[in-house]
Amino acid sequence: MRVSLIQIAVNEGESVESRRRRAAALVREQAGADLVVLPELWTTGAFAFEEFGREAEPLEGPTYEAMAKAASDAGVWLHAGSIPERDPEGPLYNTSLVFTPSGDLAAAYRKIHRFGFDKGEAVLMSAGRDLVTVRLPETTLGLATCYDLRFPELFRGLVDAGAQTLVVPAGWPERRRAHWTLLARARAVEDQAFVLACGTAGTHAGVPQAGHSIVVDPWGEVLAEAGPGEEVLTADLDPARVTATREQFPALKDRVLGLEPPRR
């Protein structure tokens, strides 16, 4: 199974429409891959808070249309990263879109954990509530976004729902890059799953981005890692590694659930 992570640069001076066209062209160049992944909020930049409301679009808006066509043209499964989605009833969501090779929408995931500590995304966007998985011919994807990576219980929920490959688009800042790599590997090890963590390059509203998109196998080994700039990271995965790892080292079977807090 071939995966391509498009670590697109998001910089001031390029319009959203120009970047949308450029991203679509990069997706088309990945014809032959099985799965292509874009980062979080690549249309606006994850830290460009003032742009969220201005550039928010309905689910089936211009980014949806451009990415559906790009997926169909390339004949790939496409995780199109996330967009600032405006719900018909008014709220904004950080919403990821996944398309089939025929350009149909397979799933949408609204980010559950919003970053900002009572400012930024945490107050500008509403929280999603649903775990989302997507069945591909080779594997089942579990969807998460950026800050979600810090919450292992979400990923355990995805594994319980059948996920074998965890896809994490992000706009992760360079100053916390060590956490990005560490957490991606930790989620792979503890959930015995592939992790595809796709970040951005460039600078979002003055915040340098980490880049360093990474592909990790179910044993925690790094199969491929990008540098800091714009690039396409490609890796070949053996989906059978998930089943083999879980059978050879069946740690997931030893989980103890429903523990009570200590009595005082």
UniProtKB/TrEMBL annotation:
CN hydrolase domain ranges (all copies): 1-239
UniProt cross-references to InterPro entries, sorted A to Z: C-N_Hydrolase, C-N_Hydrolase_sf, UPF0012_CS
GO MF term list: hydrolase activity
SUPFAM superfamilies registered for this protein in UniProt: Carbon-nitrogen hydrolase
Entry-linked Pfam families: CN_hydrolase
Entry superkingdom: Bacteria
Protein name according to UniProt: Carbon-nitrogen family hydrolase
Similarity comment: family membership: Belongs to the carbon-nitrogen hydrolase superfamily. NIT1/NIT2 family.
PANTHER family, A to Z: DEAMINATED GLUTATHIONE AMIDASE (PTHR23088:SF27), NITRILASE-RELATED (PTHR23088)
Keywords, in A-Z order: Hydrolase
Organism: Streptomyces thermoalcalitolerans
